[in-house]
Structures are given as structure tokens and as C-alpha cells.
């Protein structure tokens, strides 16, 4: 039985992806870590892992039933997790809609056998990987607002030494 490595995410609009890539280049040295490709910048809502077709279809049907209001996300925080070597961009105060959506998707995933981290949900966009040295974070005062009007199911494909994310399906968030 074939499987795919899947996750639910908020996709970042292409202009925002490019702004974040430029900000990252302006604020982090080239040797700070491995930059995540612009097209791969996203905010994971629920990681599913290796999923078979039947489970994927069930989760897609459940996702299609979600009636969650759209929300505004303010990316105004950054950090470094030394152990996994990740430099991230996130929000100081996550909007309730984001937390509710992630909680719902993580619960559905767990009910379908997709193990979920025991760690609390920490919404973030990974900017750099393999950032194991001491990282100097830029001073606060930055922020990017994003209207979250939909969420997606994405697959992670590794080929020719590169990871590429592909959107499998998308669902709208409702208007307020």
C-alpha cells in the first residue's frame, strides 16, 4: 500500500513568501543555516506523517466539513530552536481562529491514527533549517499581516536532494 507524507497548512501568498526571503537574506548570514525555499514557506497546522490513501480520503472529507471563520495572522515574532536547528517566524499572540483550526485538524488526525506531538501547538513559519550555531535574532519591530482565508492539505516530496511541497487539496474558511 502506497503512502504519502502529508500535513495540513496555511499557505503563504507568493508576495509574502518573497518578502520573507528578502527579510531573511537581510537579517541572517549565509552560514546561519539552510534556507527554506520560498515556495516551501508555510505554517503547519497538523503534521500527519506517512498516510495511506484511505486515511487521506477520510481526512479530506472531514476537512471539507469544517466551517471555521477566516482570521488575520500577524507574523511579528522570531525565534531559534537550537536542538532541531530551526529559525522561525511566528506570532506573539496567535489568533483564536488559528488555534481552533489547528486543534480541530490535530484532533481529527489523531483519531485517524496520525500521531500528534505532545508539544503544544506553536504556530510558526520555518525560515532556516540546520541552524545549530548561535543565532542572533533581528530586533523586534517587524511584522507581516496575512489574511487566512483557506487551508490546505500538502504533501512532502523528496527528490534529487530537495524537498518540495505540493498542494493536494484546499478548503475555504468562511467570511465573518
Automatic annotation (TrEMBL):
Its EC number is 3.1.4.58. It catalyses: a 3'-end 2',3'-cyclophospho-ribonucleotide-RNA + H2O = a 3'-end 2'-phospho-ribonucleotide-RNA + H(+). Keywords: Hydrolase. It comes from the Bacteria. A motif (HXTX 2) lies at residues 124-127. The keyword Hydrolase applies. InterPro entries: Cyclic_Pdiesterase (IPR009097), Phosphoesterase_HXTX (IPR014051), RNA_CPDase (IPR004175). The keyword Translocase does not apply. Pfam families: LigT_PEase. Transmembrane segments: none annotated. Residues 10-88 form the Phosphoesterase HXTX domain. A motif (HXTX 1) lies at residues 42-45. The active site is at 42 (proton donor), 124 (proton acceptor). Hydrolyzes RNA 2',3'-cyclic phosphodiester to an RNA 2'-phosphomonoester. HAMAP family: RNA_CPDase. Belongs to the 2H phosphoesterase superfamily. ThpR family. This is RNA 2',3'-cyclic phosphodiesterase. It comes from Pantoea eucrina. The gene is thpR.
Amino acid at each position: 500500500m502506497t503512502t504519502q507524507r502529508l500535513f495540513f497548512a496555511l499557505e503563504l501568498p507568493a508576495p509574502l513568501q518573497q518578502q520573507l526571503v528578502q527579510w531573511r537574506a537581510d537579517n541572517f548570514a549565509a552560514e546561519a543555516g539552510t534556507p527554506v525555499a520560498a515556495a516551501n514557506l508555510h505554517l503547519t497546522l497538523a503534521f500527519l506523517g506517512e498516510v495511506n490513501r484511505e486515511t487521506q480520503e477520510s481526512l479530506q472529507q472531514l476537512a471539507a466539513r469544517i466551517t471555521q471563520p477566516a482570521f488575520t495572522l500577524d507574523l511579528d515574532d522570531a525565534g531559534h530552536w537550537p536542538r532541531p536547528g530551526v529559525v522561525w517566524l511566528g506570532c506573539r499572540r496567535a489568533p483564536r481562529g488559528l488555534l481552533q483550526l489547528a486543534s480541530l485538524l490535530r484532533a481529527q488526525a489523531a483519531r485517524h491514527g496520525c500521531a500528534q506531538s505532545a508539544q503544544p501547538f506553536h504556530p510558526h513559519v520555518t525560515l532556516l533549517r540546520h541552524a545549530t550555531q548561535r543565532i542572533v535574532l533581528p530586533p523586534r519591530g517587524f511584522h507581516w499581516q496575512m489574511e487566512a482565508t483557506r487551508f490546505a492539505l500538502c504533501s512532502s516530496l523528496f527528490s534529487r536532494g530537495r524537498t518540495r511541497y505540493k498542494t493536494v487539496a484546499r478548503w475555504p474558511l468562511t467570511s465573518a
